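Hi L.,

You mentioned the student needs an example of a multi-chain input paired with its predicted structure. This one should do, with 115 residues in total across all chains.
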Amino acid sequence: MTTEFAEKIYSQLKKVPKGKVITYKALAQSIGTKAYQAVGTVMKNNPYAPEVPCHRVVATNGTIGGFKGKKSGKAILEKIGMLQKEGVKTENGKIKNFEKVVYTFNSTCCAEERT
DNA sequence: CTCGTGACTTACG
DNA sequence: ACGTAAGCCACGA
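Structure written out for the whole complex:
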């Protein structure tokens, strides 16, 4: 079971196409909340693991955020690896071409996904 | 219900 | 640029 709040996040996050990322800020705002931190909190639950690629979510400044080898869990590190596989390259725990891979619900949708 | 923590962000020093 | 402080909301005990 999940909370409505979480479901909103998951719903939006699932909209993010492959090879792209989204910031907690944009994600939080998209669901109509200012609790950026709460976003990350529900991410931990992530009951929709493959459907909700939490690793695809990054900090507002383009950094990976807490995914790094801090203490959150090495499992997250694995996600980062696969994130790069999808096309989102990273450098020193930060997104490369962040502006190119960043995704927003207000901008063009799946620009690269559509042929 | 109250307290504590958090995968966050913004601002000030 | 880095560190500390305050604000925000949700979840766990």
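You could point out the following to them. The radius of gyration of chain A is 13 Å. Residues 3, 5-6, 28, 33-39, 41-42, 44-45 of chain A lie near DNA strand C (CB under 10 Å from a C1').

Best wishes,
N.
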